[in-house]
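Quick illustration, no need to memorize.
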Amino acid sequence: MIYTLILGLTPLIGVNDSSNEKIYAQAIALKNPFISHLYFGETISTTDLENQQRYLRCIKVDYILAPRYQEYHKNLPFGLKAISYDDFANRLHRGLWQTMIDSKNNLYPEKQVIEINGGGKDCVVLFSSLDRVYPSYIRSLIEALKEVGFKGSVYYRIGGYPNPNGDEIYLAGVPYAFKLFMLEEARNLGFRYLLWLDASLFPLKNPQPLFELIRSKGVVYKETAPLPQFMLPKTRDEIYKLLGVDVLACKHLRMPVFGIDTNLDWFNQFLREHKRMAILGTPFLSCLPEEFILTALKERYWSKDVTPTEKLLGFEFFPSVKNGYFFYLRHH
């Protein structure tokens, strides 16, 4: 039996050998820098969320980031502009600082499946914390999907945390790990064809054709040239040792838009590999945490068989409209 002391929250809490407790114990044993030392039962209560949030906000990862950043700064290739330490730190603390619940302001987690324009088998998946502009962005994104004529469903969460197997709540501090956990929840609800959209996206036209591509190709994704300025050397080496992929020797996967057929033969293994990285925690130590993990998994599972999709995403409104992009990334 493993025991953990909860700082200022509860007395000693015991952990036994059920499946979600194994995930918790494993992450603790592996010294995941993003993990809280709280243990949860099968049902996550409002109090559990408040305690988890309070604990996560006490965690700092500077002790492990600082030496990795120092090595990065020393070895940055000539002519490549360094990303600031603060930019790395802000990205890596995003999960630790997120607002999952705010009972003082009467803000509680919300999750729902919405049928749009009559509903259908195509499902858009969305998630945001309760922070800043993101909840309003999700609501306006849903309204825009109605207006551009999308016919299908939207599965979304605002606040809380996706917990498809009952143990992902332990990994809530791992930066941006929620995206695949949300896709798994949507699959568990019975949806096969999924399109993940970051909350900051805004649809410029009906995304229905992307679902036709998901049905024919299996995966819809965007990639760019490698992004070495966003990666720490030690993390790069760690991902290579764990997954056998040098993430700076291949095209980089961008994650604001990602579509997948969950009936693909390798989908469950894909989820397991991602979760294994989240349990370790340290493979997420970069300025694009989930994207480098998913870049490695892309190379393992589909890059040789599926080409990226063009015109998924633009970064400036008028050029995006003019050039026929599906989505525009709003300021956030």
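The chain is about 40% helix and 15% strand.
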